[in-house]
Design goal:
Helix content: 40-55%
CATH topology of the largest domain: Heat Shock Protein 90
Shape: elongated
Strand order of the largest sheet: 1-4-5-7-6
Structural class: alpha+beta
Oligomer: single chain
Radius of gyration: 21 Å
Number of helices: 9
CATH architecture of the largest domain: 2-Layer Sandwich
Order of helices and strands: EHEEHEEHHHEEHHHHEE
Number of strands: 9
Largest sheet: 5 strands, antiparallel
Number of domains: 2
Strand content: 15-25%
Distance between the termini: 30 Å
Length: 221
Amino acid sequence: MFLAKNNCGFKVEILFAKYIRALISYEGISRIETYEYPKAALREALLNAIAHKNYAGCTPVQIRVYADRIKIWNEGQLPENWTVEDLLQEHSSRPYNPDIANAFFRSGYVESWGRGIEKMTEQCTKAKLPAPIITNKGSDFWITFRKDVYNVVDLGLLGLSGRQIKAVMYVKEHGKITNSEYQTLNSVSKRTATNDLSELVEIHKILKQLGASVGTHYEIV
């Protein structure tokens, strides 16, 4: 658990420096760092938590970092007669702390009121990540960001072989893989390909088998 401090920019920088991994790739000789979560989305979530927090309580905004997700909690509540579904649609801005929200707007931290959830979702979609999950029960308000666990590092931690990792990355790029494509990709026999793919389906539950006979192929679950 990481307890948020007062300055939002400071919180985001520490979060990304100490708790969020950057995946490394290259374009020619240029090193590219792609973070597991979009910084703009997490920054927007923290600004929202600060603007909508109930400061009558003594518990600070909390950030919990897990292997596959990040959860941000604040003590607050929705406007009367509102539900989480209302937040996910176009809505008016009703900040719990209008003075704080106005200060964020005037300082340039936020561009417009009432678009926080939309902007977070847009950033996650752009990064090819699932939309954030928002839950509210009583005074507990949570927003959960989920990362793409289908990368070389995390797949290795799950116990996949090098061949299987290569196949999953192939499916991410091409949408599916067949047994014959697996054989060609890894220079293995049909029997080995069948065993490896079966493990990905039945044990690791990362791929699902579709079609029958010559039309059989595999996609990410």
